[in-house]
Amino acid sequence: MKNILLAGVALVAFPVVASAADMSYPVKAPVVAVAPVFTWTGFYVGANGGYGGGDFDYPYALSIFGAGIGGDASLNSSGFFGGGQIGYNYQFDGGVVIGVEADFQWSGIDGNVDASATLFDGADAVGAASLNAGSEVEWFGTIRGRLGYGWDRALLYVTGGAAYGKVSTNVDAAITDFDTVLGVSGSTDDTQWGWTVGGGLEYALTDNWSFKTEYLYVDLGSQEAFAYNDGVLAASLDVETKFHTIKAGLNYRF
Asked: For the chain, how long is the longest CA-to-CA vector?
């Protein structure tokens, strides 16, 4: 009787065990790593170097006893420069990037001009005048806003804002009535303020390092470089500083 009961229990339990054995436990799907989306948002600092050139314009006047010359001399300027920059970008979801950047450059942009003329009183030559002037942008910098669009690791942007720089000018002026030569000379070096506008392209080489190329037009305005008047000889010279720059640089993004 006992054996019959054990056999019955076994027959009842077998389907349950078999059913349990057929049950499958849920299997988790493999975790797929999602690549981080690149963003231009963040602070950065970097270094750059480039070449600049443009015009120094010199509105001038020279006279003796009221007879003289005047005009606007111009010279071409050029030279290399190098320095650094610091800034911040913020990228919106649609790809638009806004930012602000400040830079500072040591500069070798310079030029020199010579002007001379014969002085006439009516049809008669009464003397001669000469002017030699030279200017150099010793350093300059900008404080600019930036607006651009980022295509993944490429950023195309326009930029503009304030510009400043130290411009040094030397001048030698002479005037003669064929008997007496009067000459004056002087120099000035002042910090001038103006404006700048341009654009550039930046590409992220890695998540932290990016390479940039940039063009800027810089106008540092006008300043009085020299003025003299002793009642006989009068001379004045202003300098207007405008130049173009093209540079390349590297940024480290935090």
From this structure: 155
